[in-house]
C-alpha cells in the first residue's frame, strides 16, 4: 500500500486549496481528512449522541458509513449514501468535530478509510493523516506562511466567494488557532524526517502549486489520469 502526496499546514496556509489543485494536475483523487471527521461529527449530531461519551460514540460509530468519491474533479463525502458536502462547514459541525475526532473508535474508523483510499493513490491533506498511513506517502509537504499572509489569503478567498468577512477578525481567529496548536500534538507530517517544509509567505498560490508539482516530479510521482 502506498499513496502519492501528503500535505498539511497551519490554519490559513492554503493546504486544501493547494492539495486540490495538485491532485487535479496529477489526475489523482483528493482526500480531505478533516471532511472525513466532520461527516462522523454530523452523524453524531443527527443521532443526538454526546460526543464526549466514548462508549456511546463507539457504539454509534459502527452505523456511520462514510464514503469519499471523486466526482467532476471534486471530493464528495457521502454519509450512509447521502451527499453531505453542504452540511460539513457549519459552526455546529466544526464544534462537534473537535470533540468526536479524539475518540478512539472514530480515529480507528477514519484511519481505516484513509488506508483504503491510499491504495489507489491520492493527494491527502490535513492534520489527521493516520501515523500508520503517512509513511507510505512518497511526497510529504508541510506548508506554512506568516499569520499576516494567511489572514490576507483567507480574506481574499472569502471575498471572491461573495461572503462577508472582516480581515481583523480573520487574523484574530488564525492567531488563536496558532496558539491552540502550540498546546496540542504537533502534526505527524511536520515531524516526519523526510517532510519538506515549504514557507509560502513570499509565493503566490500558483507558485506554491508549481513548486510542489516539481517536488512530485523529482520523486517520480505520476498521476493516474482521472
Description:
The strands form two sheets. A five-stranded parallel β-sheet has the order 2-6-1-7-8, sandwiched between helices. The protein folds into two domains: 1-14 and 129-217, P-loop containing nucleotide triphosphate hydrolases (Rossmann fold); 29-120, 3-Layer(aba) Sandwich (Rossmann fold). It has 226 residues and is of the alpha/beta class. The chain is built from nine helices and eight strands. A hairpin with a 2-residue loop joins strand 4 (74-79) and strand 5 (82-83). Helix content is 47%, strand content 18%. The radius of gyration is 17 Å and the shape is globular. It has helices spanning 15-26, 33-46, 54-61, 91-100, 104-118, 147-160, 167-181, 188-191, 205-218, and strands at 3-8, 29-32, 66-71, 74-79, 82-83, 122-125, 137-144, 196-199. The mean pLDDT is 89.
Topology:
Blueprint (H helix, E strand, L loop, with lengths): L2 E6 L6 H12 L2 E4 H14 L7 H8 L4 E6 L2 E6 L2 E2 L7 H10 L3 H15 L3 E4 L11 E8 L2 H14 L6 H15 L6 H4 L4 E4 L5 H14 L8
Parallel strand pairs: 1-6, 1-7, 2-6, 7-8
Antiparallel strand pairs: 3-4, 4-5
Could you name the key traits of this structure?
226 residues, alpha/beta, Rossmann fold, 5-stranded parallel beta sheet, 3-stranded antiparallel beta sheet, 18% strand
So, CATH architecture of the largest domain? 3-Layer(aba) Sandwich
CATH topological fold name of the largest domain: Rossmann fold
Q: What profile does the largest beta sheet have?
A: 5 strands, parallel
Mean pLDDT: 89
The CATH class label of the largest domain is Alpha Beta
Total helices: the number is: 9
Portion of residues in helices? 40-55%
* Percentage of residues in DSSP E strands: 15-25%
Structural class: alpha/beta
Radius of gyration: 17 Å
Would you count the extended β strands for me? 8
How many distinct folded domains? 2
Amino acid at each position: 500500500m502506498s499513496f502519492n502526496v501528503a500535505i498539511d499546514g497551519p490554519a490559513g496556509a492554503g493546504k486544501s486549496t493547494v492539495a486540490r489543485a495538485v491532485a487535479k494536475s496529477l489526475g489523482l483523487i483528493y482526500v480531505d481528512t478533516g471532511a472525513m471527521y466532520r461527516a462522523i461529527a454530523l452523524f453524531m449530531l443527527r443521532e443526538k449522541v454526546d460526543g464526549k461519551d466514548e462508549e456511546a460514540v463507539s457504539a454509534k460509530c459502527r452505523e456511520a458509513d462514510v464514503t469519499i468519491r471523486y466526482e467532476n474533479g471534486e471530493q464528495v463525502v457521502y454519509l450512509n449514501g447521502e451527499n453531505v458536502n453542504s452540511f460539513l462547514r457549519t459552526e455546529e459541525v466544526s464544534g462537534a468535530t473537535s470533540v468526536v475526532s479524539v475518540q478512539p473508535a472514530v480515529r480507528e474508523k477514519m484511519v481505516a478509510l484513509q488506508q483504503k483510499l491510499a491504495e489507489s493513490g491520492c493527494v491527502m491533506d490535513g492534520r489527521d493523516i493516520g501515523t500508520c498511513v503517512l509513511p507510505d506517502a512518497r511526497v510529504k509537504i508541510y506548508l506554512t506562511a506568516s499569520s499576516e499572509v494567511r489572514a490576507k489569503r483567507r480574506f481574499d478567498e472569502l471575498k471572491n466567494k461573495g461572503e462577508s468577512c472582516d480581515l481583523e477578525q480573520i487574523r484574530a481567529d488564525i492567531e488563536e488557532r496558532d496558539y491552540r496548536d502550540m498546546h496540542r500534538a504537533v502534526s505527524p507530517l511536520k515531524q516526519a524526517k523526510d517532510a519538506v517544509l515549504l514557507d509560502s509567505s513570499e509565493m503566490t498560490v500558483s507558485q506554491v502549486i508549481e513548486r510542489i508539482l516539481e517536488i512530485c516530479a523529482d520523486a517520480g510521482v505520476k498521476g493516474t489520469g482521472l
